[in-house]
Specification:
With 86 residues, the protein is mainly α. The protein has a domain of 48 residues. It has 2 helices and no strands. α1 packs antiparallel against α2. The protein is elongated.
Length: 86
């Protein structure tokens, strides 16, 4: 009976870890994009250049956000591979 409880507890912990990872991935993509739009719009209003800074900042911040996601996924994969070797 106790073994079943431990298995259920470990499954819940794994589900929560995956939920945290998905949340981190979503935040890591969305916040840089929102920041890029905000900063680009601010610079466009300040210098009077229509959508130039908006597009440039959006592209740069999007690349940065996706780079963070690839780093996190690679770190998670490496950590999982190390746990499998044990």
């Amino acid at each position: 009976m106790w073994e079943e409880v431990l298995v259920l507890r470990n499954n819940k912990i794994e589900i929560l870890k995956n939920l945290v990872l998905v949340t981190q991935l979503g935040i890591s993509v969305s916040l840089p994009i929102i920041a890029g739009v905000y900063i680009g719009a601010y610079l466009d209003n300040k210098f009077g250049t229509a959508p130039i800074f908006l597009i440039v900042c959006l592209i740069m911040f999007s690349i940065g956000g996706f780079a963070n996601v690839f780093k996190m996924v690679g770190f998670k994969k490496k950590k999982t591979d190390e746990e499998d070797l044990r």
